[in-house]
């Protein structure tokens, strides 16, 4: 919308670069172009503002396929007013000279024209197409048919309108039909999912079986090795017992031999000691046999005195001494004593 400013009974208009302004003054064209800026009097001016930029028109309408199924078509048409003068002559683009707003609804008229034309060509295509084909290839066929139909529509060039592009967003059936159509695919997907689940479970079971077999084989191998270990321990124990018995036998034999040698040595020593004692005793007896009785009596008294308790002092009367000497076999009275 143009920007209009009031100054002392005059009006100043300033338009956007994408707006084409036509200014008629007293029936004559005073200004004509894009992005204009000028002064005018509102009582004598007739203004038109035609947008020349690309505009997007979204549309949605219902259609029926060859198998009598209702569908909803969503499309977008991009158009541009290429001839502003022709458009201003065919449609009411006039603006209020005081406010700059459109007095009519020209863009709505253009939208109605494009929508009805596109809908007509869409209905022609879908009426000959079954629902399944419309859902699969309908977007491309509808887009091509609508683009060709709008390009061949004589009213659009006559109004100064050029169609830039046509896009068909979607073709959707009713909710119940869409759910019914999705059911086979969902069932197939579910079957594939179930099959994948079963395969995964089968693989898991197979892996568990392999793990169980590996564990069983490990247990069997462990038991076999334990058996070998027990056998080896028994063999080692028997060998150790045999070695110990052999060592004990050797030790016993050595001890017996040592005792025999010791006994022999002791016997030999005893024989030698006995012989020496016998010889000493014989010599002692020979010596005593050759000695006179008085000497033997003295030796006996000496030996007796060695075994008697110690006597500090002894007093003998002459009578006792004489009798003692007589018993010792010395009638002389023991002159030596």
Could you explain the architecture of this structure?
Helix 2 crosses helix 3. By secondary structure, this protein is an alpha+beta fold. The C terminus is likely disordered. The protein contains seven helices and ten strands. Among the domains are: 122 residues, Band 7 domain (Tetrahydropterin Synthase, Chain A); 76 residues. A hairpin with a 5-residue loop joins strand 7 and strand 8. The strands form three sheets. Strands 4-3-6-9 form a four-stranded antiparallel beta sheet, covered by helices on one side. Strands 1-2-5 form a three-stranded antiparallel beta sheet, with no helix packed on it. It has a three-stranded antiparallel beta sheet with strand order 7-8-10. 58% of the residues lie in helices and 21% in strands.
What general outline do the C-alpha atoms trace?
rod-shaped
- Runs in which pLDDT lies below 50 for 5 or more consecutive residues are 333-337
Can you give the helix content as a percent range? 55-70%
Q: If you consult CATH, what is the topology of one domain?
A: Tetrahydropterin Synthase, Chain A
Largest sheet: 4 strands, antiparallel
So how many helices? 7
Q: Report the β-strand fraction as a percent range.
A: 15-25%
- Class from helix and strand fractions: alpha+beta
Order of helices and strands: EEEEEEEEHEHHHEHHH
In the CATH classification, which architecture of one domain applies? 2-Layer Sandwich
Please tell me the overall pLDDT: 84
- The order of strands across the largest sheet is 4-3-6-9
N-to-C CA distance:
182 Å
What is the radius of gyration?
A: 75 Å
CATH superfamily of one domain: Band 7 domain
